[in-house]
């Protein structure tokens, strides 16, 4: 008996089929199984049609292939054989008519070759022939050709008459007749195959059309049966789903078959039951939520009051009752809010107030001093809901904030710097009194909210040059730091910095006095303090300029001068008289020169001169003679008659050198020769004088061998931290242990290593060794390593530092690189880029030997060094009665202003140590603290100087 959708399951006692058969039957009863059966039937029909079509196509392809590959190719080769025979007859006729034996022999050879070609073409044609008659015709052609060739061979060697050749021509005619017959037979075979192919194509077309119609009928039948089997259960399932969706959870779910639709109906029954349970749970949750809401209202810190359209209190929590003053007893339900207000309750009157808009919260103070923030909103029934929040603590914080802002305003108005703060939209939010004073503005000229364009216009009205802001669209971007010259001659230091969240803060400081001091220091850095003449740095610049402007055939002379008997003046008359003598000598030298010439004091009693535009060496001789005469005249100094002489060394550029160092060196060699020859004279540089070059070459060879053998050691000199009162680091100094000279100082070989290209591997080794050794020291102890000019070429030093830090694992902040000002002289832009790259690695950069180089201040502005090392020449004379102490103080002040640490070099006694500490120097270094020594001495040095307080007796001999 059938159910609605299929056969009922077998009853007990019926035949039990094997499990695989049962599984297959069960699957076939599902929708998927039915679709699969329909797919297999249609696939079988399609496969049969495809196989039939493929068979017909393959047969037609075979016939077409035979038509082309056999018949057509056979015709082509038969025609080729006919053409070969025609050529053979032509050659035979030419041979017969020729009287030249050589030509006949040649034609006979060609005839033999053509005979072979004919045989090959005929053989291919016979091989591809498709019928016996074509093969027989080809055999007849072969026999006729042999007869023709035999007849021709008989007559070829004799002088015969034309009638004798008639037999040959008859044989040739027979050949052509058989060739035509062979070609006709082959063409007929091709036509037969073509007709067979067309018949097969027509038959296969009819079969495929019939099969297609049959397949369509069978597919339609299968689809109809499948749809009939599926649509009715789908309609029942749709009806059930619609009733459940309409909310009818009592619908009866009909029983389904074992297929997917039956499973769908069963799932709908489960869904109906789940929805019924979910609705019951939702009702329970709503009841629970109402209970929780009541608890929340009771425990809320906010006071909540609900007043209905008649003005009665419909709902109120305990906090609101407390705010209304009913905390001691509960408020009766349905109490009129107007009655509570009538009894004098200020909060109730505020809640009932209709005098202004309630779109924004209001604030009110209760009789007990508490502050409330009230929000009120209308209900749809005409009443309102009020939420009261206690903001007493917030009011206290606002009062505190106002007091803080007042103190901040007082601090801003008493700053020594002018300050402007702009928000992200570019409007002025803060400006202090000092800013108005600097630009001679009144507070009314800069109201808060002023756009930055207006502020900039007021600024530009007072400044001589530059702009304040760089504007990109509606954004303000910081223009960095710089100096601005005002119309009244004052100089302002301007700094623009972005702030978090957008906007910018600008500060303005009057640095006129500081700039004047900087200018004085800059002048002192390039001029001799005593005589006012250019110093060695400026003299080197002048030489470089002269070399740069040196034309073809031009010359200039460099003269090195050294005063004779100057030490006797200092020893007998004192240093003050000696200083006056140096000034007088400088004045006389200046008087001897033209404006285009340069005289400089190199140090001590050494002077140097650049004589420009020299045409002949005799011009330098004339100047030298005049200088000797003028300088040797008696001086009247402080009531004393003083007489000195002068010795002069002369070299000519470019003949004696094309660099500042080379020219000064060669002039110095000539000066020593002049002194050796009796003083008070002059000598030109000669090649023979430079005997030391041989020693230098020997030094170069030894240095190369030392680099290859690794004959170098690192010594470490302590650097004392005055503020921390301990050793803060060590400077790594290279030493060369020479097998004959012993321990060689770097001053003797570093310059040579730079010139011969060995400084880069030496510098790499020094960095790796120093960093590895520093990892053995206590945390916080830094190591300083000197870096050469050559290491800055092409940024070599960057990779060297990375490798050293990577191998040693030393924190970058503990590595300090010391450079001299000469590093910045070559390719300044590239050098600065390298310095910034090193800074990004985290290492510290120090300026070594400050004050003895070329352009210290300009480089301090272009790159923010971490440290300035004051040259030992200033530290050595810090206690003397000259200007060294003032220079040291100025440099320390300069470092303090630029946020750079200062280190005094060359401390040799306790007086110098204490003087630097009192002046505010950050660090000290010198033999008094410790001589350079190997790494094994570092623990003793740290123990000896740790915890130092004030003066110490631990000087190192």
Tell me the total number of β-strands: 28
Question: Mean pLDDT, as a whole number?
Answer: 81
Distance between the termini: 124 Å
Measured as a percent range, the helix fraction is 40-55%
Query: What is the spatial order of strands in the main beta sheet?
Result: 20-21-23-24-25-26-27-28
Which class do the helix and strand fractions yield? alpha+beta
Task: Give the overall form.
Answer: flat
| Number of discrete helical segments | 28
**Strand percent estimate:** 15-25%
Unreliable residue runs: 1-14, 464-478, 949-957
For the sheet with most strands, the description reads: 8 strands, mixed, barrel
From the alpha carbons, calculate the radius of gyration and give it in angstroms: 58 Å
Explained architecture:
A hairpin with a 5-residue loop joins β4 and β5 (384-390). The protein is an alpha+beta fold. The termini are far apart. α2 (31-97) packs antiparallel against α3 (101-127) and α3 (101-127) packs antiparallel against α4. It contains 28 helices and 28 strands. Helices cover 53% and strands 17% of the residues.
Task: Give a short summary of the structure.
It is built from 28 helices and 28 strands.
Keywords:
single chain, eight-stranded mixed beta barrel, alpha+beta, 53% helix, 957 residues
